[in-house]
Amino acid sequence: MLYNYNKEFYYEKNKYRQNNDRKKVGEEISKILKENNISIGDLGGIENVLLDAVAPLIENSLNTEMDEHLGYKKHEINDEPNSRNGFSEKTIKGLFGQTKIQTPRDRDGNFEPIIVEKNQSNISKIEEAIIMLYAKGSSTRDITEYVRDIYRVKLDPTSISKITDKILPDIRAFQTQPLKKIYAVVFIDGIRFKIREEGSSKEVSVYIPLGITMEGKKEVLGFWIGESETSKYWLSVLDDMKSRGLKKILIVASDNLPGVSEAISAAFPDTKIQKCVVHQIRNSMRFVRYYDKKEFVIDMKKIYKAINIKEAEKALELFEDKWSKKYGYATRSWRKNFEELVTFFEFPVEIRKLIYTTNPIENLNRNIRKVSKNKSFPNMKSLSKVVYLAINNQAKKWKLPIRDWGIIYNQLTILFDI
């Protein structure tokens, strides 16, 4: 009966401690950090930050838990029947390494630690949480607060940056991975971001080509960060993709990016170029007065909703005659880009719906913008990490071929003789 009573007593005691003393463990870690003047951000990579550096803090916390469990501190004179019984070695693992800690034991064998539970060897959930929160666009301040509140470990913003730096090799691997020889369609679009460098702010563009494979699945071919948009720049991007194994693109759909058409024609002479009709409409509407907008849109629609290219040409001529004096910028833009705006007329309806707009890449970019939340980045590296993680998260959802791919594939094989 005495044994059962003791068993129940220790069970209730441990249960109470597990529910109420986590805060004490966290406070102990913070106290040890402060007393030893330790800044985890100065300790190196993630193996040091979350394993080697944290190991002594975990051991100190375990010893504090043992003191509470026994009811007296080490070397204190006491009348308690239970006592310390040395240590057992335990290996704890993280995402990027492992280290060993000394876990205290008691003679009765009923010590149940909180910070590293019995039979728990993997603490990678902390690292996973940090990278996941970073991928969701959380600030380093928010992440440090989360880790402090949930895991009772105090990290500074520098630590978070060093932890997330561990994905840099993954980014390099992603940007150099071999590409398929042929892509049915490649969508190209850019996103503008602000970068803070040397005390000043500047804008850069992140360009992301989204490919549709011959199996009908979406695949990001990489991403490039540039300050200028010229045919020379785009040619370097396309040459990079060619060096990774790309031989042929059937159709490229893009916004009216400066120099991109010239670069595509130089790198892939047989590729069909389709400029985004939706972008053209938006750009044309920028300077149209409110009371003209409804009629203006109706006339533009007659161009891209025509039955064929011949009818589209007639609709453009009527559009120019009616609006060129009032909105010459819009009519000149339609005329200048007309051939690449109506490429989709060369294809059946199913392919037309796929390529006349850059919606697939815009959906991806929209999710990247949600993560970035229009914030300014301290450097290119920080921007690259956020973009890569956002792409990675979206790519997990692309498991099935796009709609009507069986029909589209048969049409492409006939039209392009592949």
Can you summarize this structure?
With 418 residues, the chain is an alpha/beta fold.
Structure write-up:
The N and C termini lie far apart (83 Å). This protein has helices at residues 2-20, 22-35, 46-52, 54-70, 124-135, 140-151, 157-164, 168-176, 231-243, 260-267, 277-285, 290-304, 309-323, 328-341, 349-355, 359-372, 380-395, 405-415; strands spanning 84-94, 97-106, 182-197, 200-213, 218-220, 224-226, 248-254, 272-275, 376-377. Mean pLDDT is 80; it is low at 1-7, 9-13, 15-26 and 38-50. It folds into 2 domains: 2-128, no CATH class; 171-415, no CATH class. Helix 6 packs across helix 7, helix 12 packs antiparallel against helix 13 and helix 13 (309-323) runs antiparallel to helix 14 (328-341). Strands 3, 4, 5, 6, 7, 8 and 9 form a 7-stranded mixed β-sheet that branches. A two-stranded antiparallel ribbon has the order 1-2. The chain has 418 residues and is α/β, with parallel strands linked by helices. Strand 7 (248-254), helix 10 (260-267) and strand 8 (272-275) form a beta-alpha-beta unit.
What is the makeup of the main sheet? Answer: 7 strands, mixed
Number-wise, the strands total 9
The total count of helices amounts to: 18
Which structural class best describes the helix and strand composition? Answer: alpha/beta
**Average residue-wise pLDDT:** 80
Distance between the termini: 83 Å
Low-confidence stretches: 1-7, 9-13, 15-26, 38-50
Helix-residue proportion: 40-55%
Specify the overall morphology.
elongated
How much of the polypeptide forms β-strand, as a percent range?
Answer: 15-25%
| Radius of gyration over C-alpha positions, nearest whole angstrom | 31 Å
User: N-to-C SSE series?
Assistant: HHHHEEHHHHEEEEHEHEHHHHHHEHH
The structural domain count equals 2
